[in-house]
Amino acid sequence: MALFNLTELRASLGRDVRLIGLDPGAKTIGVALSDVRLTLATPYGSLKRGKLKANAAEILAIARKEGAGGLVVGLPLSMDGSLGPAAQAARDWTLALSEATGLPAAMWDERLSSAAVNRFLVQDADLSRGKRAASVDRAAAAWMLQAALDASRPAVPPPSSPSPPEGEGRGEGADHGGPW
């Protein structure tokens, strides 16, 4: 399967179908899940990074259990926005994962997601290093998926003001404000 851009992936999903966010690291893969309205991402868990076939089976099982129809995988761009070796490896892994699971996939910039999550867990949640290590992968996946959902949300047209009834506000009676 080819990679989708996020807008196309989102548009291709059926009603009430979720997205899975993945933050692949060297040892673990953080997993997050969107709600069915594609507005909110929540941490789901983490998987031990292993052989592609085994990881694909685990991810497909999550997709089936949770009603997910697509993947959003973190893209580790270089700080200048270029595609370095890590980004190319992530792209190759995402293509292979999409092929192995049969799920369409898009990639999203994950720069600084782990750093932001670590900062939050230290400053706001006051978690120790050990507890943080267990949480950071899935939280980083949720952070990345939330950013992707926010950026790809369809524009909502502003509410239109109702047209005044015929004769009000236009022409007849408009200059004097009524019968009095």
What's the layout of helices and strands?
Elements: E1 3-4, H1 6-12, E2 18-24, E3 28-34, E4 41-48, H2 52-66, E5 68-75, H3 85-101, E6 105-109, H4 113-123, H5 129-152
Parallel strand pairs: 1-6, 2-5, 5-6
Antiparallel strand pairs: 2-3, 3-4
Helix pairs in contact: 2-3, 4-5
The general outline is globular
Tally of distinct domains: 1
- The CATH topology assignment is Nucleotidyltransferase, domain 5
State the major sheet.
6 strands, mixed
Helix tally equals 5
Number of extended strands: 6
Level-2 CATH architecture: 2-Layer Sandwich
CATH superfamily label: YqgF/RNase H-like domain
Radius of gyration from the CA trace? 23 Å
Major sheet: arrangement of strands: 1-6-5-2-3-4
Mean pLDDT over all positions: 82
SS-based class:
alpha/beta
Helix content: 40-55%
Order of helices and strands: EHEEEHEHEHH
Low-confidence stretches: 172-180
End-to-end distance: 71 Å
CATH class: Alpha Beta
Please tell me about this protein's structure.
With 180 residues, this protein is an alpha/beta fold. It has a single domain (3-152), classed as 2-Layer Sandwich (Nucleotidyltransferase, domain 5). Helices cover 41% and strands 21% of the residues. The protein is built from 5 helices and 6 strands; from the N terminus they run βαβββαβαβαα. The protein has helices at residues 6-12, 52-66, 85-101, 113-123, 129-152, and strands at 3-4, 18-24, 28-34, 41-48, 68-75, 105-109. The protein has a 6-stranded mixed beta sheet with strand order 1-6-5-2-3-4, with helices on both faces. A hairpin with a 3-residue loop joins strand 2 and strand 3 (28-34). Helix 2 crosses helix 3 and helix 4 packs across helix 5 (129-152). The model is unreliable at 172-180 (pLDDT under 50).
